[in-house]
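User: Quick sanity check before I run a bigger batch. Here is a single chain. Can you write out its predicted 3D structure?
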Amino acid sequence: MDLGSPGLGAALAAATEGLDLGVLVYNAAFVPVGRFVDADAEELERAVDVNVRAPVVMLHTLLPDLQGRGRGAVILMSSLAGLQGTARVAAYAATKAFNTVLGEGLWQELGEQGIDVVACCAGAIPTPGYKRSGKGRVPGMLDPDTVARRTLDALGKGPRFVPGLVNWLVAVLLTRLLPRKAAIRLMAGNTGDL
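Assistant: Done. Predicted structure follows.
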């Protein structure tokens, strides 16, 4: 289904009617690449629709069933890019920051009801979209199956998870060791050739 469509909530409700849902995973993204001021306005709006609005609609539509059962889990796929402003993918980074903060808040809010939540702040993953970008392998890159397995294993261990040692070290560097301006500049160096 079109995750950016205005009728997403009704479509999700119809598609999942009668299903016994246990784990909700939002793993979709739209990534406008390039200078923000040069981006097509419709692409920027699509990034907000797919990356922010759609997970909110999905969770608001489907969480009541998990609450009714008193158990379940939610995984929101975020990104290391969402830990600070990231040049050339600024809108994407901002939307992924939203998902991380949403996951953290829901982790606390839903934990008392038996529902665990984790926001996975993954580094680069060789997905079909990443491969189309033409960028090669980068340090810390994990294959999708490894990210999925490690993220599932992270359930019950806290609201935010960074898969892979290299990615975890990058996250610590960006969020705890470097001044904010330096972290933004470091990420800009990694997105300059996108």
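The longest helix spans residues 41-69.

User: Great, the batch can go ahead then.
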